[in-house]
Fold CAZy families GH35 protein.
Amino acid sequence: MIKEEIPTVQISTPIYPRIKGIGAYPINQAVSLFSVVGDISAPVRNDYTLPMEEIGQNYGYLLYRTKIEKASSAAALKVVDGGDRIQWYLDQKPVATQYQDQLAKSIVIEVPKPTSELSLLVEN
């Protein structure tokens, strides 16, 4: 396409790096995100949900957390304009995973205690 627009341009063959095998590295240990979140990040507190860009993080993961009061045994919740994927946790236990095409749908969460912590791990 470039050659058609600029006939005199010199186009070189791309240089690709050699790929080396580095062997297998088994994973011997794992850690829960919730057990280390205080060590790897600092909280940003606000009265309303801030988008990633306003927090200064334009990509990656963001963990939103809030306390919810038990109004009934179940709560229907949904995220609008969330990102690529959202993992829902109630009291640090996985509840649901939603992908971008599912974000307009509500998630029904059983709330067993008077106060629980709702966490959303948002991937963008």
About this structure: The mean pLDDT is 89. The CA atoms of residues 107 and 117 lie 16 Å apart. The radius of gyration is 22 Å. Residues 43-124 form a domain with the Jelly Rolls fold (CATH 2.60.120.260).
